[in-house]
């Protein structure tokens, strides 16, 4: 299997055990899981600190969600590199050292996962509680240019497309779909690419 960054959305809290089970089917796969912020990041939004502080608090929230994912049997790492076997990435240290993205709620764990994929020069898979990305109510099989949608943050599509990151958005509440994808089988999803 080719190296892969796998973004596990924070809204998939209840599906985490089954997603980790599917990842465990591929014990030697070079998969780096980037956690969302989940309820931890939502709490940061609720209390409303200034943008700089909110940025770092939300990244710390990703680490909390990462430790939750790890509790189901996936080892955690703060090393920004392609792992020899599946690992959950704890992003705070790397983000503090590099500070590569704007401090705004237009940049969430979606764009952070895209930055990780770009830094490692690997493909990105984003797990969401929907089948993919929608434009005017229609699921898009393939996307080649940015548009506004509610499934990912505002910076995600411009970043992925401008950095030429091959990306697939899948429904994480259907873990069998992830398993099929990792096996190379066709699945219902959205593919984001600059060329087809």
Tell me about this structure.
With 196 residues, this protein is of the alpha/beta class. The chain has one domain: Carbamate kinase, CATH 3.40.1160.10. The chain is built from 7 helices and 10 strands. The strands form 2 sheets. The protein has an 8-stranded mixed β-sheet, with helices on both faces. The chain has a two-stranded antiparallel sheet with strand order 6-7. Helix 1 packs parallel to helix 7 and helix 5 runs parallel beside helix 6. The protein is globular and about 45 Å long. The mean pLDDT is 96.
Into which percent range does the helicity of residues fall? 25-40%
Please tell me what the overall shape is.
globular
The CATH class = Alpha Beta
Number of helices: 7
Brief overview:
The chain contains 7 helices and 10 strands. The protein has 196 residues and is an alpha/beta fold.
Please describe the structure with a list of short key phrases separated by commas or semicolons.
196 residues; globular; 7 helices; eight-stranded mixed beta sheet; single chain; Carbamate kinase; two-stranded antiparallel ribbon; alpha/beta
